[in-house]
Amino acid sequence: MGRPRDAGADRAILDATIELLADGGVGGLSMDLVAKRAGVGKSTIYRRWDSKEALVLDALSVAPARVPVPDTGTLRGDLVAYATALARIYGAAPRSDVLPHLIDAACYDDRLQASLHRYTRTRQQTLRTILQLGHQRGELTDDDDRELIVDVLLGSFFYRRLMSGERFTPRFAERLVDFVIKNTGR
Amino acid sequence: MGRPRDAGADRAILDATIELLADGGVGGLSMDLVAKRAGVGKSTIYRRWDSKEALVLDALSVAPARVPVPDTGTLRGDLVAYATALARIYGAAPRSDVLPHLIDAACYDDRLQASLHRYTRTRQQTLRTILQLGHQRGELTDDDDRELIVDVLLGSFFYRRLMSGERFTPRFAERLVDFVIKNTGR
Amino acid sequence: MGRPRDAGADRAILDATIELLADGGVGGLSMDLVAKRAGVGKSTIYRRWDSKEALVLDALSVAPARVPVPDTGTLRGDLVAYATALARIYGAAPRSDVLPHLIDAACYDDRLQASLHRYTRTRQQTLRTILQLGHQRGELTDDDDRELIVDVLLGSFFYRRLMSGERFTPRFAERLVDFVIKNTGR
Amino acid sequence: MGRPRDAGADRAILDATIELLADGGVGGLSMDLVAKRAGVGKSTIYRRWDSKEALVLDALSVAPARVPVPDTGTLRGDLVAYATALARIYGAAPRSDVLPHLIDAACYDDRLQASLHRYTRTRQQTLRTILQLGHQRGELTDDDDRELIVDVLLGSFFYRRLMSGERFTPRFAERLVDFVIKNTGR
DNA sequence: GATTAACCGAGACGGTACGTCACGTCTTTAA
DNA sequence: TTAAAGACGTGACGTACCGTCTCGGTTAATC
Fold first, then answer.
1. Which residues of B in 92-111 have their CB below 7 Å from strand F's atoms?
2. By CB atoms within 10 Å of each CB, which of A4, A145, C13, D29 scores lowest?
3. Is the CB of D158 less than 8 angstroms away from the CB of C159?
4. CATH number of the domain that A33 lies in?
5. Residue D182 is nearest to which of C101, C154, C183, comparing CB atoms?
6. In chain A, how many domains are there?
7. Which stretches of A95-162 are DSSP H helices?
8. Helices B143-158 and A170-182, axial angle in degrees (round to 10)
9. Residue C107: which domain range?
10. Is residue D34 part of a domain?
């Protein structure tokens, strides 16, 4: 019973979050700021999300996939196109890297961790679709390999991007794609 | 000129940092605490390190490599042993995950980012040594592939560990190793 | 709107301030200590007072007048009694001199300066009452002189006390009182 | 034995102190700054002065008297001229009030206190000279009164200036002078 | 129509860490 | 021994957020 939650508040909060995230990244986002910009009390936010990070993660999940499914006609072409787009889209973001903050926070919060995992797997969908198409064309045969390719491609990308700092160049993307499909299928 | 920096203070600060990191992770580490435990003023810390994260990163760098170079006689054996050890050693630490915090902080600080990259590449050394040995045995031929294998193995590991949440099981480790060496060497 | 300020916090903070002032003077008072003793967050203090000095000044203002209105029957007697009490009460406090610190701080903060002036004039009240009584008895006639006497008596006292260092002896007090009332009244 | 003290350093330090005091008052003066501007090591300063305040006080003492001895021909005229000059010269100083800081510091340091008292009494000299001249002219007779007048005039001034905040106007100066000489002499 | 219970905005709350600053002392090399 | 240089331990500063709590007031569904 009682007054139902205002659905508009959800949108206002998520919008404010996305805006603040856009300019300033996680560092430039505080709950007070979100509340003020959304025209909402802080308790209204905490009634819906457990923590700042949970909110941010939801805001991210709401946003549509940024890397489109390419269609070049061949698996190799699609994968190279995908990897290149990945590098272009996520490679630019200068200081507004939100994901690392969530990854960190997830270490200390099981619920958040679960959300992050769910989010990550959702974001794998584009790649899975590409592989699925390749499979239908007969360019891939074995199921297990596809799972592996997802980890290898995305893992390499994030590892370079966030940890080793080496550039994820188109040149490297091609090498990587050739590497992962050379020993698959026939 | 002037009074030289006390080398003992460096050690004391790094030691205190490592200790505090051990119990409590980054969350349980504050500069005041480090200063107190090291018997040092906070300014002495800030004179040497730009930020808490730079200090932590240095403390990590000082610590010896935790994953030893295995020696099973074959490349495949070594790689599986290495991957397994990786999972065992880094997989256990539940809340004391220091790296994600540094990865996050590095997004907002160029000097820190450079340090993180340097650290990461240093930590690749064990794996590179394994591959070098495999090369000497004739199990690997092409140089470029070795570079790639490093990214693929470590990338997959951290991607699963930190982002997708899928277990990095011994089973998976074997599959991964087979995947990366199937189309290399002869 | 919003949650109203907790009146109890005001009291707790002022009480803590007065206590800490009592043992240790301004030097022994830090905002962290006040907050801790009052069981209050530091932000709660800063929400109400601009600075440590503003808080101390308020704490002082809350305290009751320490020099009572004497009643000797004659203006001269009252004034001598007052001056003597002044010397006894403020002359004793060795290191816990709060006022000089506030006087200093007030030089750099207009709001604080205004508070100090208000406080000082409030503290003149006792003396004004004495003069008022003298006036009612016919021992004083002209209004302007009373204003002057306040400045002269208190000014001399603080000047000796804080600047020239000469003792404000009972002997001096009498001389001073005779000086200020010799040419008044009649 | 050993290297003799550099006499030039004294001047350099005092000059630097006076300069820094001029722009910024005590608040804008730190020992590091003095040392840097004087081209001197900090220890060289501390070898000569006990504390920042002792240095400042010495710097003040070195400066010549700022209120000149007037010569109007009458005691009343001289006193009014003096009081007016006092108000003009010290009344202007906005935030560079050095004396209050020293007064405060002197409460916690006996040596400094002695220095402050000495300094204050030195600064009374101008006024004493005026009174001495008045005495020679026969406008004052009793010695004790002269002592009192010094305290009353300077006390009132500083009391208004620093504590009660009331303006020390020329009008007030005249009233005060009339008050203190009405009941002296004849 | 009155009651009730959860909602709402605002903003104060206790807590904790931050990075900065200045103090007065100490330690080096050089004169 | 004094000098310049500058590192040292100490400790307070005021700020920024966190996530919670407390107001007065609103908004449905239930009685």
1. none
2. A4
3. yes
4. 1.10.10.60
5. C183
6. 2
7. 99-106, 110-123, 125-136, 143-158
8. 90
9. 75-182
10. yes
